[in-house]
Specification:
It is a single chain. The chain is α+β, with helices and mostly antiparallel strands. It is about 45% helix and about 15% strand. The protein has helices at about 5-15, 25-35, 70-80, 85-95; strands spanning about 35-40, 45-50, 50-55. It has a three-stranded antiparallel β-sheet with strand order 1-2-3, covered by helices on one side. Strand 2 (about 45-50) and strand 3 (about 50-55) form a beta hairpin. The longest helix is centred in the last third of the chain and has 13 residues, at about 70-80. The two termini are about 20 Å apart.
Length: about 100
């Protein structure tokens, strides 16, 4: 995972929620993680990642920056799909040669 995506995951799970997360960054992260994204009516998207399906709402046209509710929705979805900062650290450690984590 790139440092850009790692930084975004941390920002999404940080409290208080950041006021500067752009939807295009979230889309890039979802694509990088292998999620399938299906447009629905309006600003709704059906997302499938790690066997977990959810409905996300992209920001409306006047702003591509996520509000707090949008960040909380994405955070909740990613947590259900087992994409969290701590899970990323475990996976990164497993990928390191000589790692002792099973």
């Amino acid at each position: 995972m790139s440092h850009k995506h790692e930084h975004l995951i941390r920002a999404l799970f940080r409290e208080p929620a950041s006021g500067n997360i752009h939807w295009r960054e979230v889309e890039s992260l979802l694509n990088h993680l292998g999620a399938t994204v299906e447009p629905l009516s309006g600003a709704r998207l059906r997302v499938r990642l790690n066997g977990v399906e959810g409905i996300l709402h992209r920001p409306h046209h006047h702003s591509n920056v996520l509000d707090r509710q949008g960040i909380h929705s994405i955070r909740e979805y990613l947590a259900h799909a087992r994409v969290t900062p701590s899970q990323y650290e475990i996976d990164a450690h497993r990928a390191t040669p000589g790692s002792s984590i099973p």
